[in-house]
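Q: Could you write out the predicted structure for this multi-component system? I'm mainly interested in how the pieces pack against one another.
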Amino acid sequence: MLFNTLQYLVFLPTVFLLFWVVPHRLRVPLLLVASYVFYMSWRPIYGLLIFGLTLGNFLLVPLIARSAQVKHKKIWLGVVVAGNLITLAVFKYAYFSVHSLKEGLSLFGVNWHEPHLHIILPLGISFFVFEFIHYAVEVYRGKPLVKSFPDFALFASFFPTQIAGPIKRYQDFIPQLSVPARFKWQYLDEGMQLILMGLFKKVIIADNLALVVQAGFTHPANFSPLDLWLITYAFAFQIFFDFAGYTDIARGSALLFGYKVPINFNLPYIAANVSDFWHRWHISLSTWLRDYLFIPLGGSRCSQIFNYRNLFITMTLGGLWHGAAMHFLAWGAYQGILLILHREYTRLLERLGIASQLFKSKIYHAVSVVLTFHIVCIGWVLFRAENLTIAGQMLQKLAQAPAALLHFSAAQLACLQIRDPIIFPALVIILPVLMIAQVVVNWLNDKPFYKSPPWAVQVGVMVATMCLLTVFSPDTSPRFIYFQF
Amino acid sequence: MEAVGIATTASTDEVCRQWHAPDSDGREPAWVLLVRAVLSSSTVVSLIALLIINNLAASADIGQPRFTNVSEQSWTGWTIKDFLSSQERANLLLLGSSLVLVPVAGADANFLKQRLDGTRHHRSFYLEAALKARTGYSVRTFNFALPGQMPSDAYLIEDFLLDGKRRPDVIVYGLGPRDFMDNLLPSPAATDPFRNLSRFGDISRMLDRVMPDWFDQFSFNLGQSFCLYGRKGELADQASQEFARCLNRLLPRPKGASQFSVFDRRRLLPGYRPEKLTKGEAYFRPTGIKEKPQFLNNVDEYRKRYRQVNWNTFMTQMQFLAELLDMARHRGSHVVIVSMPISDINRALVQEYAWNAYRRSVRVLAAFKGASYVDLEGSGQFHLSDFGDTVHLQADGGKKMLDLLADRLAGDHSVRLALKISADMGGNLQPYSSGSPGQAVSPLKPAQPAAPLACLRNQPL
């Protein structure tokens, strides 16, 4: 079931009404059933897989806590983590591994007929697995166990965050389940505002930008270097609004039941450097990678070279987590290299004694934001391209942009020629507006007017959004990008 | 609103309890709570405001689909527009899928020796001429065949359009096995003709048949009771056109650049509104012996279409065909069912029992409902060289098909009777007169195109 479908429009209010009608002790079972209905509406058999994983983790993780010796704790932690990772590997990376092996062997002249694998990736399995690993590691570190199986099962399968996060922390989520809350209109209002905002981001912005991105990334040869930059910017905003839209709907849906789930985005395109970007982009993933991969690898409390190694491994594996393909791996490695370069650059400025002076300068900050955005956009090319060959073509053409700018004429831009769909020429206006919007929202964020707008403004915005969404709701609902991960 | 989330990320037990603290002591009477809710909840007030806006839009008829403002951007849209704007009533109307559309228009392109824009050419000059040569009467045709048309679509055309002044005397309906067993079609409501036509009338009585899925029915019923949703297609189109108009004014297309054609767009965005058709996008071109188009092997496509016969689809479409025949008879139109020829290659893809069921059902239905039945499939006259692919006749095959059809129509007593009745009642059926300019066309001697096509030549094609 997708958030942007009529099915969800029926499902969510039904669960919402039932939730506030039934007694508190039935709320968790109700949400659990609803979550499995939500999941199994796609492919019922995979409901069993998720249930099996949940049960396995629920039964095995207490063995970590009960082990008296650290050695035994480690063994049980290894078993749990390996079990989760093997499940992920089988469903997500089996085909990629076999195919890569075949490609590798062919380099040595070995012609190996790979076995035919027909594995359908269970929706959201990467998110499930990460939440289970988080639970196991936290218990290993001495945090309390979850005693109730329904609570634990709901933590994993809670339908708003089930398919694409945000990746929750059980210490934050489980205590909320035991609070015998009474209905407050605040839940409904804040939840609905987030849901409408999320749908607007997805339906009105991301899905329209998707048309341009699809054309550009499938046929880069048909577009000039400057067009391809526009298309790359378009993808940067498409993926942001798609995923941020999903997160808003997830958070809004959870709020309807009085539950809070973590945020995932904080205006990522106004980041002044790559490190800052990763503090603002997919926050629940980057903090997970920090806590359960980077730190266990040694983190930054080691020599410089090992610190960089850890950073590189973390980001590369983070890239591979997004998808079993070389271009995701390349994207992750690119991010790792960028973070290492950024650290080296900061160290250099500190050695020169100009770091604090520079960082205070507004002009330096503005230039940094623009540069970071472009560096991130280059990464998005690796992320979005179907394969490394297309990514290579795109990057090659993007590199020709400075020369194209020297002889610029509007006639070069294919985007201005294509008038149907109208989003192509509209990019010239929409993209700057979206960028400026990030800056404006950043400025507004600490203003009381924006934090809690007057009631009339809230109503006006909600009504306008509802009207827009009603009129522009598509007949077929495109999937959210992050569903594939 | 993002800030709300950012400001409240910390979630400990304490924060949870604060967050969940009840906001009333629960002693107020229910009506007080209700009034408080209405006045304090932005969601409730927004929903009420939305309902008011919806009712205003409904009473002001905003976005109400009408035949007068039908969007032209598809085969169906262009054809409806042309049908309704035509000054003269057509007394012979052609129905069917591309199985009928392609050969009829192709034969005309050869006959008139000019390329014909699919968005504007909706007659069969060749059939008119062939009938005139055989009967001495001028017949005015209208080709309402549409790509992908199913009997359910044909039924809507009959129901909503072929009544009163626009009632044809004879309806020639060309059928093929795909019309009853297309696996690629999730439901009858999924075709472009159905989507277009269903907006102009009440289809609630046939909802179970055309939308078997519960959510499709829910969506339809939601659209019926909530006009902003029900008319979203029209409203979104209007808004997009306005936006495009503003943008074109603000950012005109740069001069001196190469033009992006609709074909470029289709290549770049194959999934973007596949039903969309603009002027100059689909031409039927005259083909000589030398430039005969290459045979297109579309076996794989039809293998998917015929893979497993869905008897529900089959029965539903047969039912629509039966109802179409009933309605046409009730309205005084005589129907001629034509079993369209398909190639042996395509025929072999249909399972034997399905083929027999299709052939027998159509034949029995025609006999039972008083329609004429022309079996071109079983005529043995068509060979692979007549086809452009495994199902569609190319222009020469179309000419052969129309000649055979004209023979059968001219010799069919019911058809003659239907056309004659029209003439007696003041229709446009005129006795044959070889001297009347623009009318004396014979299949043996192609003449200048008739008036409506003359204007086509003056347009930039």
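A: Regarding packing and overall arrangement: Chain B is about 50% helix and 5% strand.
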